[in-house]
Amino acid sequence: MGSLAAVGNMHLTARPQQRIVELRIAVIIGLGPAGAIAALRARARGMGVLALDHRLEENPTELPEWPATYGLVDAEVPGWAEEFVRPAHEIRVVTTARRTPDFGYRMLDSSALRQAVVDAGVTLIRGTERHVPEVLGQVRRDNPGAEVLLIDCRGARPDGRELWQVAYGMVLRGRSAQVQPTFMDWRPVEARVAPASFLYIQPVDGGMLWEETVLATDQRPEDLRELLADRLRQRLRSAGVAGDVETVDTEFVAIPMGLREGSWARRRRILVDANPPRAVEYVPFGSRGGLVHPASGYSVGAAMQAVDEVLAGTTRRRALGVDMAFYLRLVGARLIARASPETLQDFFDAFFRMSRECQLAYLTGHHPLAVAATMWQLRAYTGFWHPFLRPLVTHPRAVLGLRRRSRGSATARDPLR
């Protein structure tokens, strides 16, 4: 673990010998995108911030690299985040027809966000959750009156019951790879073999990302790597992407979905075995707190939208609604995982014929009535007996998750395990 000397330096913001009784300190575990967003916004609110990540170097001066690329819907980007996302661009969707969604799409500038955290003066500590008691003990000794918020951004923990979004992508540089950005292309590249997958194309640093994605599945991600790589190569051949193209990078992404250690909208007090022991406010954030969309895999835009409320502690009044919206979209993810390729192609054609408001309510919203209204209105396009919806009648217990045991009790006892 890196030196904790910098922790005590926060008391230098006050006059010598003055006890700081109102200083607010955020201790963040995990420096992926959600942790970086939380750290940056906490500093913007005048909080002292200490961030732990096991991937940091000794005496760190920069954040760890993030292996994946991140996209978000333009409507999710708050004003403060404009400098950390690329300009919005038009996207297309290909289902049984070609469609142009009435919203822009943007890519996260990961390097800019990571650098902003460093520039903001966040104290970076190489460590894990095991080092939290030591950090909190040091904070208490140096700042006896400090109000501490522990923000857990370690990501969701797979437990064998989750769904996965799985993708294999290549960053390509060359004229034939420069095509119109595509949000989803559901046209099959082979006989309609499960699991269904779609093509995703977006501009990134160094070229264009071409990626084949399974939206939701209960299969093991590693079992799909070669299948997705082969489908992507077929896509490239069909699109005429040829010898002028250089492969700059590849990525294999496996996102566990439908999991959370608790709700990002619910803080709770926990007792940490520091020296001396102390009670602190604790909140899971990012995918740890359920901000990964259970039916799309998106999370960065949701974290940007939620972070200021989380830091202000004003989320509890709508926590029940957040829980309900999460559950409704999780039902959607289970339906996606059960659907055949032809069913998904037809279903998403119906989805992208809906109004912009309905699409965004489902893709980005946390209001249960808006999510439920969108799901209900889909019925007008598909009919209630559409194959996508039929499992609600034929397998209701599995789709509604009535056999799944809540994980809340174990997490509440020991959130830092």
From TrEMBL:
Q: Which residues cross the membrane?
A: 20-40
Keyword check for Transcription regulation: no
Keyword terms, alphabetized: Membrane, Transmembrane, Transmembrane helix
Keyword Membrane in the entry? The reply is yes
Under PANTHER family, the record lists: OS02G0190600 PROTEIN, PTHR39757
What protein name is recorded for this chain? Lycopene cyclase
Native organism is Corynebacterium heidelbergense
